[in-house]
Write a structure and sequence with these properties.
The protein has 295 residues and is mostly helical. The protein has a domain of 157 residues. It is 67% helix and 2% strand.
Length: 295
């Protein structure tokens, strides 16, 4: 049976194809220039945007219509980013493009490393093969277009926007939760409220808490990073988290320092100049205080 499994040939092949697509797109953009690259990026982004909705034409989706429509909503971080990326690239403020760059690359590569939408699916079936290819192709632009946007000079990263990335991430998580709530109330997802808040059902973006499998090696950090009023024992006896709000502590304590490290390869000179400016400012302040004491 031909299928994608962690570590098998097809798994590494798709990862290699992602690297090849990114590399050759970069080479092409360098040779063709900014005008071509801008059209190239927009073509990819708008095509990906359209595919997010046109996937409903796949027979496997049509068989589940209208409930399959939930798959064309912002049901996870990648889906939401696919839906907003063309608008961010064309009209978004600088902080939103920083978010698109880092979260696009991180989530895009993350999906290829853990391709949950393609794992263990028999690819001999035409519908399964079509869906697996769509899954991979729709996540590749998150990486490719983000790299081209910065490498071609359409956007300049600035580590001063770290706070905006954290705030945007929380805003996106809120949208994911509201989308899930809408799907629940409108009947597109059929489950009780205990299952709705479960971390093990529809929790693609960790909106409802860490995956249960994380408890064994991260559980000790929960009480340190997450306030007790954002974490409680649910009706079924399972550990339950307040959607979205549980992330505040981890983002402040872990997320922002990690984002600083993500900016470092691109912004090290800017950071160093800011450090020198800070040192010079402190020096002048000390001299001013010393002078004031002599008067």
């Amino acid at each position: 049976m031909v299928t994608v499994r962690i570590g098998n040939f097809w798994y590494w092949l798709f990862l290699a194809l992602l690297g090849a697509m990114t590399y050759f797109s970069y080479i092409l953009s360098r040779r063709m220039g900014p005008a071509f690259t801008r059209k190239f990026i927009l073509t990819i982004l708008w095509t990906n945007f359209a595919l997010h909705f046109l996937k409903q034409l796949n027979p496997s989706y049509l068989a589940d219509f209208p409930y399959s429509l939930k798959r064309s909503t912002p049901e996870n971080l990648c889906a939401l980013l696919i839906m907003v990326s063309p608008f961010i690239f064309m009209w978004g403020p600088a902080w939103s493009k920083d978010y698109m760059f880092f979260i696009g690359i991180i989530s895009g590569i993350g999906v290829y490393l853990n391709p949950t939408g393609a794992l263990n699916i028999p690819l001999e079936d035409a519908n399964n093969l079509l869906e697996a290819l769509r899954f991979y192709l729709c996540h590749a632009p998150l990486v490719v277009c983000s790299v081209l946007m910065v490498s071609s000079g359409f956007h300049q990263l600035n580590y001063h926007r770290i706070w905006a990335i954290a705030a945007t991430f929380m805003a996106f998580q809120t949208l994911l939760f509201l989308n899930e709530l809408f799907l629940k109330l409108s009947g597109f997802i059929d489950m009780d409220w205990v299952s709705f808040f479960s971390r093990n059902v529809r929790n693609g973006g960790l909106t409802f808490g860490p995956y249960p499998m994380m408890d064994s090696f991260l559980g000790g950090l929960y009480k340190v990073l997450i306030p007790p009023f954002f974490m409680f024992t649910g009706e079924n006896g399972a550990l339950t988290f307040v959607p979205v709000l549980w992330m505040l502590g981890p983002i402040i304590v872990i997320g922002i320092p990690l984002m600083f490290l993500c900016y470092l390869p691109f912004e090290h000179r800017h950071m160093y100049l800011d450090y020198l400016t800070f040192k010079e400012k402190r020096k002048h302040q000390r001299l001013a205080r010393a002078y004031a004491r002599t008067k």
